[in-house]
Automatic annotation (TrEMBL):
Name of the protein this chain belongs to: Hsp70 family protein
Upper taxonomic lineage: Bacteria, Bacillati, Actinomycetota, Actinomycetes, Kitasatosporales
Gene3D superfamilies for the chain: 3.30.420.40, Actin, Chain A, domain 4
GO molecular function, one term: ATP-dependent protein folding chaperone
Cited Pfam families: HSP70
The species this protein was found in: Streptomyces microflavus
Keyword annotations of the record: ATP-binding, Chaperone, Nucleotide-binding, Plasmid
CDD domains the UniProt entry points to: ASKHA_NBD_HSP70_HSPA12
Domain of life of the native organism: Bacteria
């Protein structure tokens, strides 16, 4: 195991990105006293903040001009000249990774995605779409900038790059395909491809590490969240996703996942998208809106910025309008006719877009009901497994959107009678700070398997049960192809350090490699990998070259799979000699 001296985390969010780190020392062994260094000085930042914008400004060739707050400043102040030169501004692109077809971000350049510069291929994933290749390229550029910023500070503090263990946060709703692409992003950004040098942490799990050490208690007299038997759910409300995990502390205070990791693409960024694509579009009309997007997107950014600042104060009982002032550039595009049209719809107001309380409630209905449904599903599962325990369930809110009074009020209104609801100090840094704690000393002892995982194998044919079309004649008798050989079952509690192994033997004498697919399904008792609901997760190829001199039945391969960590991992050993077998794993996008 890599012996790190520095533990560094990057929280790559849809809206913002941040980095933090700590060092190995006796004073930092206890998470309560661990000192974490945050980055709070970014070029062109509007004020002190531990997060920079997840934004990139690229020239016509796809080369980086600026990133973060500086990219936005340049786009706002030099937008016309930059657009004339073919530059493009990207923001909020993370959640488009693996998405079939998402609406464009309100702050992303309106150019079509297939006109963007062609990025490089990925190594860990196959079936990658052109859009995913573009998003991979953008994420790589963004991560590289943050890593270089962090390295400058860490190295200046007397440490070497080889001293660092890194962790990158990922949404709980990410598939293993998306995590595999993140591995490509990590390597493309200049970090090590070794698993013990760069970890992945689920965002709500990182937030759980933060909540446990932030001084929170169930109530004034109750035990802390690090105490044995504490039961809590973490609801991470970010810009792109809402992710939820639930835990029970064991007798050592370590976390055991007691619910399934749940997540949906219903983060606060979708409010911004709806403001632009529905309310502003309706206010200005399609023709004017097309001109605005083409000729003065910087003015559009100003309006979205106004909404970004205003939405954090919207309450569940909101009874006042919010006015988004119209910048001069947009006012010119509207003209007198556009102003008259707007005034007739807004009680004579023509210098602002008015959002009424009814419209604000409709906006928040884009994401809040879905968030409540996710909490309901997780809480019901926690309650059904609680038995006679009198330890109260706790709901911990984390992430930037958890600061929303509207969201907090909605959650309390629905769940206050069933759980204690708490918000840690500075919930917007919960994932980033928690990721540092996770990197230093992960506190999760076991996780729930999201799916039933297994591989396709040729098992002995069961007459009268298996279909004739699956029959395969082999030297050992008839076998049934496409049988689902289960390694882990959906909902099963899997220790984080557990490896599950099966021995595979080639079917034919001339076989010089073993190939199989890794499949996932929600069914707990699948029989065939072709059953409905079974998805191909990855393809695995194992080289048998070193043991081809042995008899076929002595060419066994012991295949190991790990499901208790953040990622599904596969490795193999040759039974003859016990050496590690060359294994290639490629994750699929259709999962």
């Amino acid at each position: 195991m890599f012996d790190a001296r520095v533990f560094a985390a990057v929280d790559l969010g849809t809206y913002a990105i941040g980095g933090a780190w700590t060092t190995a020392s006796p004073d930092n062994e206890s998470p309560e006293t661990r000192k974490i260094h945050f980055f709070n000085s970014w070029e062109s930042q509007p004020g002190p903040t531990v997060k920079n914008l997840s934004a990139l400004l690229l020239d016509a060739r796809g080369e980086l001009l600026a990133w973060g707050f500086e990219a936005r400043r340049m786009w706002l102040t030099q937008g016309m000249a930059l657009r004339t030169a073919g530059a493009r501004y990207y923001h909020g692109f993370k959640m488009d990774l693996g998405a079939l077809k998402e609406a464009t971000s309100p702050e992303r350049n309106a150019d079509t995605i297939d006109e963007a510069p062609e990025p490089g291929r990925t190594d860990n994933a196959c079936g990658v779409s052109p859009q995913d290749l573009l998003i991979t390229n953008l994420l790589t550029m963004l991560l590289r900038q943050v890593v270089q910023t962090m390295l400058h500070q860490i190295i200046a503090s007397g440490y070497d790059e080889d001293d660092i263990r890194w962790v990158l946060t990922v949404p709980a709703c990410f598939t293993d395909y998306q995590k595999a692409i993140y591995r490509d992003v990590i390597k493309g950004a200049g970090l090590s491809g070794e698993d013990d040098r760069v970890l992945l942490s689920l965002e709500p799990e990182a937030a759980a590490h933060y909540a446990r050490v932030s001084g929170l208690r169930h109530d004034n007299a109750g035990p802390a969240l690090m105490a044995p038997n504490a039961r809590f759910m973490v609801v991470d409300c970010g810009g792109g996703t809402v992710d939820i995990t639930a835990y029970l502390n064991d007798q050592d205070g370590k976390m055991i996942e007691i619910g399934r990791s749940l997540g949906e693409r219903i983060g606060s960024d979708f409010l911004n998208r709806r403001v632009e694509n529905e309310y502003l579009l309706d206010s200005f009309g399609k023709d004017v809106m097309d001109q605005i997007r083409e000729e003065c997107p910087d003015a559009l950014l100003h309006m979205i910025d106004q909404w970004e600042r205003a939405k954090v104060a919207v309450r569940l009982d909101q009874d006042e309008n919010i006015n988004l002032l119209i910048p001069t550039g947009i006012d010119r595009k509207m003209g007198a006719a556009g102003r008259r049209r707007l005034a007739s719809r807004q009680n004579k107001v023509d210098d602002a877009v008015v959002l009424t309380p009814a419209q604000l409630h409709a906006l928040f209905d884009t994401v809040v009901p879905g968030t409540l449904d996710l909490i309901e599903a997780q809480l019901s599962e926690m309650e059904s497994a609680q038995g006679d325990s009198d330890v109260p369930n706790v709901i911990v809110l984390a992430g930037g959107f958890s600061n929303s009074p509207y969201l907090q009020q909605a959650i309390r209104e629905r769940f206050a009678s069933r759980a204690t609801i708490i918000v840690p100090p500075n919930p917007d840094i919960a994932v980033l700070a928690g990721a540092v704690h996770f990197c230093y000393d992960p506190q999760v002892r076991a996780r729930r398997s999201r799916f039933t995982y297994g591989i396709d194998t040729a098992l002995f044919f069961d007459e009268g049960v298996d279909p004739e079309s699956f029959r395969l004649s082999t030297p050992d008798g008839d076998r049934c192809v496409d049988r689902f050989n289960v390694f882990a079952t959906a909902g099963q509690s899997v220790p984080t350090d557990a490896e599950i192994s099966h021995v595979l033997i080639p079917v034919f004498d001339e076989q010089d490699r073993v190939r199989f697919g890794v499949f996932a399904t929600r069914d707990t008792e699948p029989r065939y990998v072709s059953d409905g609901g079974c998805d191909l997760l990855a393809e695995v190829t194992i080289d048998l070259g070193p043991v081809m001199r042995f008899d076929r039945k002595e060419r066994g391969v012991r295949t190991f799979m790990k499901f208790g960590e953040t990622e599904v991992k596969v490795r193999a050993e040759l039974v003859q000699g016990g050496g590690e077998a060359a294994t290639q794993v490629r994750f699929h996008s259709n999962y």
